[in-house]
Amino acid sequence: MSADVSAARARRGRRWRTGPFWVALQVALSGSLLLLFLLPIFALFTYAPLSRIVAAAGNVQVREAIGVTLYASGIAVLASALLAIPLGYLLARKRFFGRAVVESIVGLPVVVPHLMVGLGLFLLVLPGSPLYSFTNAIGFPVSDTIWGVVLVMAVVSAPYTVLASQLSFEAVDGRVLESARSLGAGPGTTFLTVTLPVALRGIVAGLLLTWARAVSEIGGILILAYAIYPGGPYNGPVTSTISVYIYNLFQQGDLADAAAVSSLFLLIAFALFLAVRLAERTGWVPWRRGDLTP
Amino acid sequence: MSEWLVEGIEADLDAFHLGPVDLALRSGQAVAVLGSSGAGKTTFLRTLAGFLPLQRGRLLRDGVDISDWLPEERSLGYVPQGLGLFPHRTVFGNVRYPMELRGRLDANARTDDLLARFRLTALQHRHPARLSGGEQQRVALARALAAEPELIVWDEPWQALDVEARRELGVVLSDLREEEGIPVVVVTHDPGLAFSLADSFIVLDQGRVRLSGGPLDLLDRPSNAFVARFVGYENVYDRAVLEGGRDHPFTAWLLAAAGSEGVAVGTPVAVPTIGVPSTWEGVVRSARPNPDGVRVEVAVDDLMVAVRLPRPWPARLPAVGERLRFNVDGDAVHPLGTGPRNAR
Questions:
Q1: Are residues A184 and B80, on separate chains, in Cβ contact within 8 Å?
Q2: In terms of domains, do A95 and A24 share one?
Q3: Are residues B173 and B126 in the same domain?
Q4: Structural domain contains residue A250
Q5: pLDDT of B71-126, one tens digit each?
Q6: Min CA distance, A124 vs chain B (Å)?
């Protein structure tokens, strides 16, 4: 009797979970979120006529702003890879005093408004400060240069690489590493041939996030490198990052151009993300080898 | 091939203490390490492999003290639980790995040989996640051999394998030690394969060696309930349970033979109700045929006793509620823990 009742209950439970109501609820919730993502984009594309978007693509200033943004964000991602992956490894594998404090410090640039990060950096490199003299002496002046952009981008976006690589390194099965050691690999070889390749997929995901965060940065840049004067790896005319460029258009009341340049940049960013995803799908990239899914 | 000597090794992992453990391994010998979960089996293997520092004792290979050697210097094929295959490398890449480390020029040819030997050639381009459990085991073994180990140390080789894959792997491991003389240390929960493979056994309990010896030592002196059940005793009784039912003559008789922890009784044989003098009688609770005859569960007072009805199979299985008589061989009664040596 009671077995019949519980069986009926289980059947009802299954119907509930796979039934039309449940499916409708899932579609409604997921759909709402996707709509939230898409509506602003839709608004941009409908506000800016296609001719304006094409014109924006041909505009030298726009192209310079996009170029300098991609260039600076690329350097910021490389810097993150160089500095953040080792820190992620340290946090994943080592137990040391003050580890929680270090983890909190890593999270700081993510949680504080980026204007504050920019302000802090600005104060650090005020003319006359030791860091001002030092950065100028070694050929990396930061105020209103591409290095300033890179600096802000790296500070606000590197935490994503730290966190992603920490999680990825933690997820590498210690027994796989012990196998490598026992098969004859020293600690360094084990790291390069096993730990890093196995964790690579998560690390790359973190680097992508880092890049996305770097590209979209504006708050800190407004303060430290509102205008970008030639210097360092950038030798073009005075320009700004694309976010600052669009902000300026908006401030001038030029909504149509602001929307057109935004739409253009959206297309570029979307194409870049799509290219990475497609490369992952085809298995051309090393970090997707050995997946469960074909 | 080398000879290994483990002399009183002790190691600590957090609050857990292992040892002292002693072990001697000659070429081609196989030792099975037994024990319930948390007994220290994996800790022992990881200590052998060099992942835990020795607090005391020595590890000797051919008379050389290698206690302080790094894991990569020990020439020891350690296969951890879960096998530790490299998920980012193909089967070929996994097996080739140890030879890459050694810069062997014939790495590809030797990898091909090993893949052929373990019937992995057709799977060489796959990644481990897309192999069956048995295939993964063969990759792990091929990879361990590629490093030309002087000792194979394997944690739970038969975990999650079906019957056929277990049998096959048992054959491969036996071949290995017979043909190549590589000694093997395995941790296992599988009595059938432990008995078919190992020449000697170590039983660990809370980090200490409870018993070490050959298969007959285990069968004749099971020492505790875990070992008794492991080696196949179906009738294992805690002392406390027996003390609770001492009014019944059968229980009282078992209690007299029991050690401090209880008693293990080899499966008694049922006897005809008429014509043969028998000792005990119980009520049938279940009867299931197997290759040896029929396994009958009989209730004697509160105790359940597994009884064997030898072949040929009867025309009719004993029915539930029927009475069944059986004899218990005094030699088949073994005390567990400390206490009477035997019921004889």
A1: no
A2: no
A3: yes
A4: yes
A5: 999 988 899 988 999 999 999 999 999 999 998 889 999 999 999 988 899 999 99
A6: 44
CATH number of the domain where residue A281 is located: 1.10.3720.10
Exposed e or buried b per residue across A25-46, where buried means at least 16 C-beta atoms within 10 angstroms of its C-beta: eeeeeeeeeeeeeeeeeeebbe
Q: Cβ(B285)–Cβ(B297) under 8 Å?
A: yes
Q: Which domain holds residue B150?
A: 4-225
Residues B240 and B322 in one domain: yes
Contacts of B86 in chain A (CB under 8 A): 176, 179-180, 194, 198, 290
Inter-chain touch A175–B80, beta carbons under 8 Å: yes
The answer to whether the pTM exceeds 0.80 is no
- Cα dist. B165→A87, A262, B186, B203 in Å? 44, 60, 17, 25
Chain B residues in contact with A197 (beta carbon < 8 A)? 88
The interface predicted TM-score (ipTM) is 0.82
Distance from CA of B87 to the nearest CA of A (A): 6
Examine the domain organization and report whether A71 and A208 are in the same domain: yes
Number of domain units in chain A: 2
For A94-195, where are the alpha helices, taking DSSP H only? 99-111, 114-124, 130-137, 146-171, 174-182, 187-190
Q: Which of residues 84-113 of B touch A (CB under 8 A)?
A: 84-90, 97-98, 101-102
Please indicate, yes or no, whether residues A163 and A222 belong to a single structural domain of this protein: yes
Domain match, B239 and B207 both: no
Q: Please indicate, yes or no, whether residues B15 and B162 belong to a single structural domain of this protein.
A: yes
Nearest-by-CA chain A residue for B86: A176
Residue among B84, B101, B128 minimizing CB distance to A184: B101
Amino acid symbol at A130: P
